[in-house]
Design brief:
Blueprint (H helix, E strand, L loop, with lengths): L1 E9 L2 E7 L4 E6 L5 H11 L15 E9 L7 H9 L8 E9 L6 E4 L2 E3 L1 H8 L3 E4 L2 H5 L6 H9 L2 H48 L5 H13 L1 H16 L7 H14 L5 H30 L4 H21 L3 H67 L6 E7 L2 E10 L2 E5 L8 E7 L7 E2 H4 L2 H16 L6 E5 L10 H10 L5 E5 L3 H4 L4 E10 L2 E8 L2 H13 L4 H24 L1
Parallel strand pairs: 3-15, 3-16, 8-14, 14-15
Antiparallel strand pairs: 1-2, 1-4, 4-5, 5-6, 6-7, 9-12, 10-11, 12-13, 16-17
Helix pairs in contact: 5-12, 6-12, 7-11, 8-10, 9-10, 11-12, 12-14, 15-18, 17-18
């Protein structure tokens, strides 16, 4: 339960600490005293959006802190899972949430047990602790789009809804991917012919890395055949000699013979003779190589023409695809990959089609299951709400949960009541839900917003909230003037119903109705006082002896007199009697 709430510099509150009790906590006070500000502060504590305007004039920041007593919680369930997700834990049987709201230009801070956390984490944890039913809840009944959420809350289908929303999101993503691939395929078909031409053109050239350098060398050789022949002949002649002179080969041989003859005298000369023999062999190899080169060296104009043409072809490819042969080959590889991707698109589409059908089958099965569960929950909710309305002096009112489904050829194939239908769907499933009522016997049920009066709307809202609260796992429920519009004859029933929720919940209720306040286990009064020229909010828990006076003032104002006090005592006595009787049942 919420054990303590501390508020500092929030709106017109300078500093306020409220101790809450188990059971039904009723908050009363004059209009404008600050009751709703306390509820706003709790909303801020739970991570709700709040502006810097809520920081009290003259202060730099506002702070709201809530101390939650979780000592009786045996299994934290979803709350513990939320805490574990963020590395948080219950300490000494409790949890402390803190929200600092900065003034204009500042930065707020959220904390759990003193550790700073993002406000989204505070909101996630707060959702498992407190549920606030404000006056705006009445207005939600006028919006049919919210009726489905109310039904699903009653049916406890949060997990199923989340799973279905995930499947539908995946299905939508597959649809978008298919559309993207189809658009790419249309574009690819236009470029496919060009890509194929480019790949074929490059492949036909038969290029290899280094080809251009080799061709340039070949062209240079063919262009200078005569210069090369003259130079090689001169070198060959110098090595081999002729009739008029000895060549280097013979001279080196003679030198080797001469030195070798005296090698026995001086071993050093023997080494030199060996070196000269080796040189002679090398010259001999060079002579043969030059002779062979001369024999194979021919003028070849056709080969030169072919080389020139191939170099021109490479230059043309370089102009189109890259500055070097390597870049041309890299471009060809990219073009081949692109062609393969284009050719794989049909396979990708087929794979996506299979994935799409798998998702549609799973979503259809889950949507059908959710729809069947909703139908069962709708029957139960109708009966519960009608019973609640009867208690609220609306006996005979029919409350109908209307469920509709619409055929759609592009929808999900769902089995409904033993029949297979293709139905329109969204992330919530295939059902469209609207709450209808018929306040008077014999009337056809119609939309709540078209037929309910203000008082009837308030009672329908209260009946729904009472029904929903019985399946709500949050420990603390806050009702902010949800009895607005309820008449005096129905008000005691409202009080009894709110008190009845305390078997499973701590209940905090802001009310203007003494008939409701009479059922309080703890009665708190909010008043506005003055302190050094500025207004301040004071909250005081009434003793039992003070409650008669407060209820009397709520009944007849400050001048209510003896009659109002007598009525107040009767309200308190009646409430105590009804609570004792209910406790024995």
């Amino acid at each position: 339960m919420l054990a303590q709430l501390t508020i500092r510099d929030f709106a017109i509150i300078d500093r306020l600490t409220i101790e809450w009790s188990r059971g039904l906590n009723v908050v009363t006070g004059e209009t404008g005293a600050g009751k709703s500000i306390i509820i706003d502060a709790v909303g801020a504590l739970l991570g709700g959006r709040i502006s810097a305007d809520f920081v009290r004039s003259g202060a730099n920041r506002a702070t709201v802190e809530g101390v939650f007593d979780l000592s009786t919680v045996e299994d934290g369930g979803e709350l513990k899972a939320a805490l574990d997700e963020h590395g948080l834990e219950i300490e000494d049987g409790g949890l402390i949430l803190t929200r600092d709201i900065a003034g204009a230009g500042g930065r707020g801070v959220s904390r759990v047990n003193g550790r700073a956390v993002p406000t989204a984490v505070l909101q996630q944890i707060g959702e498992h602790l407190i549920d606030i039913h404000g006056q705006s809840e009445h207005l939600s009944l006028l919006r049919p789009r919210e009726h489905l959420d109310l039904l699903d809350r009653y049916a406890g289908m949060g997990t199923g809804r989340t799973r279905l929303a995930g499947l539908v999101a995946d299905l939508r993503a597959v649809d978008r991917e298919q559309q993207r691939i189809r658009e790419e395929a249309r574009q690819a078909q236009r470029e496919q012919a060009l890509l194929r031409h480019e790949v074929d053109e490059i492949e036909a050239a038969g290029l290899n890395p280094g080809d251009e350098d080799e061709l340039l060398m070949t062209r240079e050789r063919l262009r200078n055949v005569e210069r090369i022949r003259t130079a090689v002949q001169s070198a060959w002649g110098a090595l081999s000699g002729d009739d008029e002179r000895s060549g280097a080969h013979d001279l080196v041989g003679q030198a080797a013979l001469a030195v070798g003859q005296v090698g026995g005298v001086d071993p050093t000369l023997a080494q030199q003779a060996e070196m000269l023999d080796l040189v002679a062999e090398q010259i001999d190899d060079a002579v043969r190589a030059l002779r062979h080169y001369l024999d194979t060296l021919d003028d070849d104009p056709e080969q030169l023409q072919a080389v020139e043409e191939r170099l021109l072809a490479i230059a043309d490819l370089k102009r189109k695809y890259g500055d070097t042969v390597e870049e041309i080959l890299a471009y060809a590889e990219r073009a081949r990959n692109r062609l393969e991707a284009v050719e794989r698109q049909d396979q990708l589409v087929a794979e996506l089609d299979a994935r799409r059908e798998e998702l549609r089958r799973a979503a259809g099965a889950l949507a059908g299951d959710l729809s069947a569960r909703r139908a069962r929950a709708a029957i139960e909710l109708q009966a519960v709400v009608e019973a609640e309305l009867a208690d609220l002096n609306m006996r005979g009112t029919r409350f109908v949960v209307q469920m509709e489904r619409h055929d759609d050829a592009a929808g999900l194939l769902v089995e409904i009541e033993g029949k297979r239908r293709t139905l329109a769907f969204d992330a919530t499933g295939v059902d469209r839900v609207e709450f209808l009522i018929a306040p008077n016997p014999g009337e056809e049920p119609k939309g709540i917003g078209r037929i309910a009066s203000g008082g009837e709307l308030a009672r329908v809202a209260l009946a729904l909230k009472t029904a929903l609260s019985r399946v709500d796992r949050r420990a603390t429920l806050i009702f902010d003037e949800v009895d607005t519009g309820v008449g005096g004859r129905s008000a005691p029933v409202v009080g009894e119903k709110l008190w009845g929720l305390t078997s499973e919940h701590q209940v905090l209720c802001v009310t203007h109705m003494p008939q409701v306040a009479a059922y309080a286990d703890a009665h708190l009064v909010v008043a506005k006082g003055a302190d050094e020229g500025s207004s301040r909010v004071v909250v005081r828990t009434l003793e039992q002896s003070e409650r008669v006076e407060e209820l009397a003032q709520m009944l007849g104002g400050p001048l209510g007199g003896t009659g109002a006090r007598r009525n107040a005592r009767e309200l308190l006595d009646g409430a105590r009697t009804r609570k004792r009787e209910a406790s024995r049942r």
